[in-house]
Amino acid sequence: MDFILKDIAFLDQKRREQRLSNGLTFGNLGKEGVSKIIEIATQISGNRSPDSYLNSLRTIPIEMLIDFFSRTENINSLFSWARDFENAAYNGSFVNPNDLEGSLKGPLSLILDYAEIDRRKFFGRFSVPNARDNGLRIISATYGTHRNSFDITNALNLLIKDNRLELIVGNDIAGDPDQGTAKDCKIVYELNGQKQTKSFKEGERVLIPEHGEYV
Fold first, then answer.
1. How confident is the model at residue 162 (pLDDT cuts 50, 70, 90)?
2. Which of 56, 102, 186, 204 lies at a C-alpha separation of 20 to 30 Å from 173?
3. Predicted model pTM
4. Would you kindly state where each structural domain of the chain is located, as residue ranges?
5. How far does the chain reach from its first CA to its final CA, in angstroms?
């Protein structure tokens, strides 16, 4: 999107919206290019008419995208948003969407709305349990070796269900911080107001609290 918008940044609002509408509907080939491809495909398959396919493209709900990305302030911010999202994606540890800067939550919410995903349910899915509401809370957790390790605090908090954390220690949690080497997991947690620390080896089963412990 950033690459496309550089060509329309200096156009007036109406022409920006027209260009975006065409691009979001037909892609970089434009209406003519897509029409040719559809025409060839329908001739080969013999199914439906080219116009029926073109009409289906026009039903894509792109109005909200056009309105958002045609604004000058959003065009100017797009590169920095892309950079910050990339940094979050390649971060060594899980980045909770609720911890993103407010400037990033705007475009993320737009994409959720476009995909018809309830944004409240999405962000609520990543809400970290509060110690006052949940007997178990992970204060800090790391996975790795003395050379390199990942912070997996948020990832483990999200795995808590019914006041219990259960998993097998491994690279599935957040990736491999030190390939070819046995890893350890250290978890500092609060349970019923009491702070405790436990360590586990790679491949070991984590069960907090253990069977018989009061929650």
1. confident
2. 102
3. 0.54
4. 1-69, 71-127, 136-208
5. 50
